């Protein structure tokens, strides 16, 4: 009886070992492109951790074409205060720096979303240079500052980039010194930005194939001239139109036709 039990245990152990080995072998048979695609469904932190699995996995994550970084210090501080948030934000910035240093391929999408502090300005500058140098198609910068009047200023190199297909930025200072050259841009989303009539006009003039323009809580301009024939949709979020055309304090220029509102303070217009 004891021999029979031992025999069953050995067989069961061999069966489990065979199943585990078979599963591992199946994964290892996938080409690198499939494994990288699988990694793309993970958060970037988890994707980087896979480098410890084996020698083959060590560098696979460095070929991810989309790098998305998100960290909300206020959700994470647990009431521990400013010093804790600053320390964790610094760790987050350091993680981005190390990740970009190891990246080995052209980028399709690059996104950073965190509570911005001015002493990180040089870091964000290097990230934008990195993204531009990698020929990124989609760039998303959401840099909510901890204090007023401490927004990140978009570097001039971003205004002269014909690679962009989609561009989103919020809580940034927008002040192009020359012409805007977003010749391939199809979608543009700007949030919580204050800019002049001249700036918005240069942005639209420098985006000849723009199809969708989204403005959220933007201020400072009194004229919106959307005359580009390629633009098909204008989306306004938290945009309270108090312009009075009778006294020329504000002006809409373009063939605007209303679309059904999305909801709340979100309105769509067909241009």
Automatic annotation (TrEMBL):
<dbReference type="InterPro" id="IPR001810">
    <property type="entry name" value="F-box_dom"/>
</dbReference>
<protein>
    <recommendedName>
        <fullName>F-box domain-containing protein</fullName>
    </recommendedName>
</protein>
<dbReference type="InterPro" id="IPR032675">
    <property type="entry name" value="LRR_dom_sf"/>
</dbReference>
<dbReference type="Pfam" id="PF24758">
    <property type="entry name" value="LRR_At5g56370"/>
</dbReference>
<dbReference type="Pfam" id="PF00646">
    <property type="entry name" value="F-box"/>
</dbReference>
<feature type="domain" description="F-box">
    <location>
        <begin position="24"/>
        <end position="60"/>
    </location>
</feature>
<dbReference type="InterPro" id="IPR036047">
    <property type="entry name" value="F-box-like_dom_sf"/>
</dbReference>
<dbReference type="InterPro" id="IPR053781">
    <property type="entry name" value="F-box_AtFBL13-like"/>
</dbReference>
<dbReference type="InterPro" id="IPR055411">
    <property type="entry name" value="LRR_FXL15/At3g58940/PEG3-like"/>
</dbReference>
